[in-house]
Prior knowledge:
The structure is a homodimer. The first copy, chain A, is of the alpha+beta class. Helices cover 25% and strands 30% of the residues of chain A.
Amino acid sequence: MVSPRMHPPRAVATPRAASTSRTGPGAPYTRVKQHLKDGLAAGQWPSGALMPSEAELVAQFGVSRMTVNRALRELQAEGLVERLQGVGTFAAQLHKVSSTLTIVDLHEEIVGRGHHHESRVHLQRSEPASTELATQLEVAPGSAVFHTLIVHLENGVPLQCEDRYVNPAVAPRYLQADFTRITPTHELFRTTALWRAQYSIEAAQATRQEARLLGVAADTACLILVRRTFTREAPITIARLVHPGSRYSLHGEFQP
Amino acid sequence: MVSPRMHPPRAVATPRAASTSRTGPGAPYTRVKQHLKDGLAAGQWPSGALMPSEAELVAQFGVSRMTVNRALRELQAEGLVERLQGVGTFAAQLHKVSSTLTIVDLHEEIVGRGHHHESRVHLQRSEPASTELATQLEVAPGSAVFHTLIVHLENGVPLQCEDRYVNPAVAPRYLQADFTRITPTHELFRTTALWRAQYSIEAAQATRQEARLLGVAADTACLILVRRTFTREAPITIARLVHPGSRYSLHGEFQP
DNA sequence: TGCATAGGGTTGTCTAGACAAGTAGAGTCA
DNA sequence: TGACTCTACTTGTCTAGACAACCCTATGCA
């Protein structure tokens, strides 16, 4: 980090008195944004519905149009609304948007959309590793590994089935976490040093168990992401993340 | 899509004369943003280096601070800079970046596996762009774009259905290529300068046409990758790549 | 009937000024 | 020396007004 610039004298604006704090999450544009997010989460505007115009929001919130405009522009960037010049602002198709293949915490992603996130823990235990799993996690065959099976719900709708095995040597306290309150991704982020990740993405029909957990028909096309992460020394975890294809897609961008 | 609201009369601003167009990619905030992006790409500011303050950019570009602020805010959102209130703007740590969904030529991939690659060209022509497509490729609606529909086979088994639209302004000789001998990806690599790519991955059941072309059942789960590539200036192509899920998966790796 | 146009809505953007809040160097005083 | 304030600088945000580009409907005219 380079040290900040010196401070040569320069004439600046004359100060005056004012009242309320404006920085931070209580800022007006944040209020407008949250109001719209809440409305979207509550189904106030179904997908494709026309949302209030900037002028209407200006009147409703008593703020300037630039402020409203910023809120809407950010919602657009987040993929929650679509805007057409000369036409209006529309509620976007639900959940299309997700983020990069960067490893993001699903919880943050869902909350970032202004939605409610819930985890249902179906399995949380230690079990002996199969031969293949032992190879993947680079542990001795038959030695204990941690296994969790969790379904994540967005606004009550199952979004992801997360079947995960964890290397106990790297995250010995993994099983003690309360996964209804913290996601495995977050827990592992917190306690291990991620260095590298490998993933593979495929489409397949859900297994019977997965279909049941996700509440979809057994032949639904699902997007399956298998991700293996590593510290600099050893594998941390291998996760099989199953999304019903109709409710999810991955987006990304890269620049060589 | 709900129909737009009615237009009750309301008083609006009085018009006045002005000169240059401000909307679009030539917009001042875009210029500022691009200038900084270019500088970052050129290594003008190494990771962590202090970048020009808003006031300096205001002076340099002759625009208002709000305009500069917007450019910097968007660069921050893109992860290219970090900003600290009261301190300054710093070049972000390089490539925290995502993934290596590197664009590989399918032909090389198949040949690399020691297998035989064959392309069946089902469509190769120029056609008028639909409104949405025109937007995606940033061409005038209704203007001609190039369209190819090709099925790639590995050892005689259909592996990918490639439905591709190309911007004629960027690759004017695209249609003259012999796609039984060279893949579109290779042709475009050869004739255009790839700068950026956007992709979206989802799972879905194949359409009837796709199922027929791929020789699979209509309800087969497929992995669909929609990829849009760009030169530094304009979109090159948008491709919809459909793989029968059972026969394909994507692999990647990244390092933070 | 059919076409051109005007009007009034919508988003997109820019400006100039202002205040708020945070940082850090430079002085001041005990 | 060490703790304090002062002050210049930074980013963060808001406002009111304006113009541009675009879209849709209604209207008037041929």
